[in-house]
Amino acid sequence: MRLFRSSELLGIAADTLAFALEASRDTHPNEYMGFLRATDARDLGLNRSGQVITDVLVIPGTTSTPESATVREHMKPNSSRAVGSIHSHPNGVLRPSDADRATFHAGDVHIIVGAPYERDCWRAFDSDGDPRDLDVIDVALPEDEAFFDFDQTDIDAELYDE
Q: What's this model's pTM, rounded to 2 decimal places?
């Protein structure tokens, strides 16, 4: 990972978008909600500066209904790779509601996906809720094995450490 990254957001990885569409489809008729993280484009083999959205983080304890999804804000990780949010509109409407706009303050891009959750059933918005362009980029997603590199001994140490 590079110490200094360009903040320009180039797009979303095709596999990341496919994951979010499938997760939204699986959650339907309730809303789906997640947070977006990006990876430096050069770390993905692209010969340009900028970032590509590569991860969707689902926060434990998120509750959802057909009208909304609620995240426990205290569970949201503080990450330098965080770039925005993604959620679904089961009614298929691809524009932000007033409630959506109120949550768009954290991050540069907010994606809404809508039923029937096909490849073209999504739109990106900036922090003001205005539409923005976001390319779908076909790149191999990085292996983030270190995130899952723990066992029961590590869990016990974390739980029972004084």
A: 0.79
- How many angstroms separate the CA atoms of 66 and 21, rounded? 16
C-alpha of 126 from chain center: 14
pLDDT tens track for 76-132 = 556 657 899 999 999 999 999 998 998 888 789 999 999 999 999 999 999 999 999
Q: Domain range for residue 144?
A: 9-160
d(C-alpha 109, C-alpha 126), whole Å: 5
Asked whether residue 2 is assigned to any structural domain, the reply reads no
Do 107 and 36 form a contact (C-beta atoms < 8 A)?
A: yes
Beta strands at 33-40 and 82-89: parallel, antiparallel or unpaired: antiparallel
Q: Which residues are catalytic?
A: 31
Which CATH number does the domain housing residue 83 bear? 3.40.140.10
The tens digit of pLDDT for each residue in 30-64 reads 999 999 999 999 999 999 999 999 999 887 666 66
Would residue 71 count as lying in a domain?
A: yes
Residue 121 lies in a domain: yes
